[in-house]
Design brief:
Length: 132
C-alpha cells in the first residue's frame, strides 16, 4: 500500500469538501487493482497505518480525476484552426485531417498522444468520439 499526505479534495453528494491535512491510502483489491483504501483527516487515519511510509506533499492538493464528456480525439491537431463557421471548418480542416486516421500507425500514434494529453491535464475519464 501507499499513503499520501496532502490537502484532499473530494465530494460528498453534491458538496465539494477539502480536507486541509488529509491522508489518502491506496492499495490493491483481491484482483490486484489499486483502489482507495482510506481517505480522510491525517490525524484521524495515521494511527491505523503505523508501519506504512507516508509521502508528504505539502502545498499540494490530491483531487479526483476530471471527466470530459465530449471530445473528438481525431480533431486534436485541428482545434483552433481558423474558419468562418462549423461547416467550413469541418470541410477545410477536420475531414481532410481525419482521413489520415485510416493508417493504423498514424492512428495509434495519435491515440497515444491524445491519452497522454488527457492525463497531463488530470482527465481520467473521457467519452471520446472517433472519425466522422
Amino acid at each position: 500500500m501507499k499513503a499520501y499526505r496532502a490537502s484532499v479534495l473530494y465530494f460528498s453528494g453534491r458538496q465539494a469538501m477539502l480536507e486541509q491535512d488529509g491522508l489518502l491510502v491506496v492499495g490493491p483489491d483481491e484482483s490486484g487493482r489499486q483502489l482507495v483504501q482510506a481517505m480522510g483527516s491525517y490525524q484521524a487515519l495515521a494511527a491505523r497505518y503505523p508501519n506504512l511510509a507516508i509521502e508528504h506533499l505539502p502545498g499540494r492538493i490530491i483531487a479526483p480525476g476530471f471527466v470530459d464528456m465530449h471530445i473528438h480525439y481525431p480533431q486534436l491537431d485541428v482545434i483552433g484552426s481558423p474558419a468562418e463557421g462549423l461547416l467550413p471548418w469541418l470541410e477545410n480542416y477536420t475531414f481532410p485531417h481525419e482521413k489520415r486516421f485510416a493508417a493504423p500507425q498514424y492512428n495509434a500514434a495519435a491515440a497515444s498522444f491524445f491519452v497522454a494529453g488527457l492525463l497531463r491535464h488530470v482527465v481520467t475519464t473521457a467519452q471520446g468520439f472517433g472519425r466522422s
